[in-house]
Amino acid sequence: MSSLSKYLSGKWLTVYAVVYMLFLYAPVFLLPMFAFNDATIISFPLQGFTTKWFDVLWETQALHGAVRNSATVAISTAVISTILGACAARASARYRFPGKRPVMGFIMLPLVLPEIIVAVSLLVLLMQLGMSLSLWTVVAGHVLICTPFSIAILSSAFQGLDNSLEEASFDLGESRWGTFRRVILPLVMPGVVSSLLICFTISLDEFIIAFFLTGTDVTLPVYIWSQLRFPTKLPSVMALGTILLALSVVLLILAEWFRRRAAKKQGIEASAGGFM
Amino acid sequence: MGMTLDKEARQGLTLLSPTALYALLMLAAPLAMVVTFSFWTQNYLDIETTLTLDNYREAWSKPIYQVLMIRSLKISLLVTVVTVVLAFPIAYFLSFHVKNRKALWLFLITVPFWTSYLLRVFLWKVILGYNGVLNTALMELGLIAEPLTFILYNANAVVLTLAHAWAPFAILPIFVALEKIDRSLLEAAEDLGDGPVRRFFRITLPLAMPGVIASTLIVLIPTVGDFITPKLVGGTDGLMIANMIQIQFGKANNAPLGAALAVSSMMIVAVISLIIYAAGKKFGGRVQ
Amino acid sequence: MAAIDANDIIVLSDVTKTFGTFQALKGINAGIREGEFFSLLGPSGCGKTTLLRMIAGFDEPTTGTIDINGKPMAGISANKRPTNMVFQSYAIFPHLSVAENVGYGLKTQKMPKKEIATEVDKALDMVDLHGLGDRGAHELSGGQRQRVALARALVMRPKVILLDEPLSALDKKLRDQMQVELRSLQQTLGITFILVTHDQEEALIMSDRIAVMFEGEIAQLASPEELYRRPRTKRVASFIGVMNFLDAKLGSQDETTLTINIDALGPVQVPIDIAPAGLNPATIDAVGIRPEMLTVLGDGNDNAEHKVEGEVTGTAYYGDMTYYTVQLPGSGEPVTISMRNTAGRSVLPAGSKVMVRWGAESVVLFE
Q1: A161 in a domain, yes or no?
Q2: Which numeric CATH code is attached to C8-235?
Q3: Is residue A238 part of a domain?
Q4: Which of A110, A139, C58, C129 could serve as a FRET partner for C119 with CA atoms 20 to 30 Å apart?
């Protein structure tokens, strides 16, 4: 018993936390290492510094197509999910109506549903309807899994919105639309931007749904998957991954910054753990 | 009054309707379709729409599916236990020992999660491989004479990789539950004579239980459906049911059987989830 | 119920409000006079906020009508009504500066920027926030937020300003100060103020008239003094200040006087006109006496007409006042008596035998 009490004490927990973080970051650290490593084989020891794998990326036409496809999918997904998320978050935060909990629960379901189930179900439906697979079928799937994230982010923004602010605006003679434009929108805008960025990031990285629902135009993760089979392509895949990692981190920091601004605007202390 | 909805309810429902409609068309309809599909059969290129239980008979009786299903559950449960057990001390550390930089820690925990999933799994292959980072490092240090082989292309590798992939999902719910604990309760327990250990088991853990249950379910349910990790690091011993579902929808071109496998595995996971939820409720019953 | 006057700025007629099966308001009739400070006073859940929100236009009555300035308000939404509200939470727009908050409604009216600036400055001066227009909303103290909310309503020059528990978030000292300021501002401007509060002291200090509400009904509508001196029901009496209730029965009555037999004090004659209108003397079953209307005498050497022996069972020393609980013979509950601590008057310890003096004019009759 006394050893457990020590285990729970700060010092050992700190050590544990550091080791745990090393575990979490091991792949993240390796990615840029191999991206700049002057060797075709992905293994230690490192051979020397090079940027040639990044140069390869500029010359690969198929990759450029995949980037364009992914950008189209991710931007469409972000916009549609955020609009759908905003409707649901606002409805849930502001209004009381029968059936709210089950309907909201169902909308949030993709958060816990294995992606393969989402992908397979949509695939079966599309097959039955005789629709061909395209980037838009990928968007349809991505919107499904991104909307719950958007709702989670926007719910806090809409819930932080004191009802009396709207009433005050209304009381001062403003119309419903004017109130939306002058009070609600400015206050939830950072949340909206944050939602757009998160949905964009999720869609950009998503593989399983894209793998099942993509047609001849592949997205970036599907392209990466196809490249993993060719050992010679691996270093440039590492380079690509490094760029994606940097992009994701920048987008996430931006998203977090916007979320905090939203909270600050509403006079709420920015609570920890906004992403989930 | 009676059946008619008031103004507020109507406005709320109207606002929710686009999202609800989308979920209905893109989630409810497809799920219903999969269930229907699982009662149909594949007839070479056509789908035979006579209702039959053949797919389920095959899914539940053929040894290969049984083996894959049991292995999937074993691996998923193991992943869940490992992930949650590893995550709890971190959540505890964040909640009780980090004072000013909680948000930064949480951010740092979520960053690896946002790296391309495919590449993360692939990099674990690089780390755990025969000539991988881990073996090279251990041999350099003189801790081992020959590369370890039990760490890649088997279930261990799958467990490790998935535990890594789902770490933030396990940490956050527990952290949130721990943050909600009123610190004066802990002082009260101490004041009434509990030492740190007794206090932990009598106050902290029971109150954190809802978070632990949430973590467990959040990790367990999706891992059953993963097929990337088994394919990349699992070898033949590490293949799971999702790989078989993917094969049925792909190469094997037997979507109805794939659907039956998908529905079966979801049912099993749902039952296990309900058991865990019920058990958790019983354990932390007085909470909430 | 108070008579409704043609000059009343707000007329509430048979106003009811039902939420599902809960009847929040059960037929409110009242007239609010132009330029008066009117308070809706009652415990939480009595319907006072619901009534205020219906005057503002955030809710519609289930039945009944609300007229403001001679016009029926049915179907007229909050943004079209000549009322402005100071919210309990103040509802200061967090993304706007103080000046932008105060000028919000004027901008809606498309007033030129220069005029808005002048009006905003005037309003800020009125509430003693001169020169704070550029401050952000989050830089304000509680008291300042309250003032901004007030200025934001005042700048609209409404017929009526509605205040929903405006002082409840402030600490005691600031609240006392704001009560006086609000009252004098209202008197200077001559605008009708309607205040919702659960604090009886606040209502007494600020109001011209008070409607005391319980469970969706107005129990009494009167001036502060009348409410305190002549509460119509036991419930109103105990909600406003402290009241000692003593069991009593009607002894006899003639054209000008009632003789009441008070169990603990004996018979007393009171003028018939102190009985509230509509009270049947035969149904009297208690009298009320305020603590300050009773006097404790240490020695008992007093020639007062009405006095009775008692025993001090407890004292509470408040500095300027001492509150005694005194057991009177024949009465169940001990009575509370407050005494000013003047020079040369010492506090009597518990157990002291005392004489309690009282006056017939201070008796309130209850059914």
Answers
A1: yes
A2: 3.40.50.300
A3: yes
A4: C58
Instruction: Chain A: give the shortest CA distance to residue B66, in Å.
Output: 19
Structural domain tally of chain A? 1
CB contact under 8 A, A43 and B131: yes
C155-181 confidence digits (pLDDT tens): 999 999 999 999 988 888 889 999 999
Interatomic CA distance for residues C102 and B22, integer angstroms:
42
Residue C296 pairs with which residues in a beta bridge?
Answer: C356
The domain defined by C243-366 carries CATH number 3.40.50.300: no
Residue A169's domain comprises 60-265
Judge: B172–A276 Cβ closer than 8 Å, yes or no: yes
Residue type for position B98: V
Query: For residue A18, is it within any domain?
Result: no
Q: Which residues pair with B48 in a beta bridge?
A: B41
The reply to whether A178 touches chain C by the CB within 8 Å rule is: yes
Whole-Å CA distances, C305 to C257, C275, C359 = 17, 22, 8
Spatial neighbors of C232 by CB under 8 A, at least 6 apart, are C219, C220, C276
Domains in chain B: boundaries: 55-283
Residues 142-171 of chain A with CB under 8 A from chain C are 162, 164-165, 167-171
Residues of chain C with CATH 2.40.50.140: 243-366
| Range(s) of chain C covered by CATH 3.40.50.300 | 8-235
**3-class SS of residue C302:** coil
The pLDDT assigned to C83 comes to: 93
B222 and A91 within 8 Å at the Cβ level: the answer is no
- For B93, the closest of A13, A100, A117 (CB atoms) is A13
Task: Tell me if chain A has a CB within 8 Å of the CB of B252.
Answer: no
Q: Is the pLDDT of residue C228 over 90?
A: yes
Instruction: Tell whether domain B55-283 is in CATH 1.10.3720.10.
Output: yes
Does A153 reside within a domain?
yes
In a mutational test of the A interface, the residue from C90, C108, C144, C157 whose CB has the highest number of chain A CBs within 10 Å is C108
Residue B2 has pLDDT above 60, yes or no: no
Mutate one of A25, A33, A96, A121 to test the B interface: name it (highest B CB count within 10 A).
A121
- C170-203: b (≥16 Cβ within 10 Å) or e: beeeebeebbebbbebbeeeebbbbbbbbbbebb
**pTM given for the model:** 0.79
C-beta atoms of A267 and C108 within 8 A: no
Residues 6 or more apart whose Cβ sits within 8 Å of residue A72? A135
ipTM score over 0.85, yes or no? no
CATH of the domain at A125: 1.10.3720.10
